[in-house]
Amino acid sequence: MFKKIIFGMVLASMFVLTTGCSSGPLSAEDLAARETESNASQWDEEDYKTIAAKSCLKYKEVFNKSLREWYANWSIQGTEYTMLGLTSGALDDHPKWNPIAKNINELKYNAINRASGGSGVAVSTDVAIEAFNLCNELGVDVNN
Prior knowledge:
Elements: H1 2-20, H2 28-33, H3 45-67, H4 74-88, H5 98-115, H6 125-137
């Protein structure tokens, strides 16, 4: 009888600990650290969310540096946005996460055009706002 009581108390304690200590939604860093399916044809929404988190974290870094130490250094910005596009490109044509990829592409083409002596290309404010909002949804404030 005593063993049953102890066993019941242990089970109840485990239940309280596992349900009461929920850490809530994953942070962007936790999302980005997850593995994605190696075969893109088998990606599910969680894989795309992971890719979006990775893209947003790097996007924040590149965007902020482009406003500071890389300001008007179009060559390095073009290179960095191109490298970022290797990750965010997986979001092309995704119904939800596409604005992140589209905004990064526009920033890349703008920087490359300017690096080659051009006057830049249009970067859509609407797409940028959509991308910022999606990143914010994942816990990444690109503006901060």
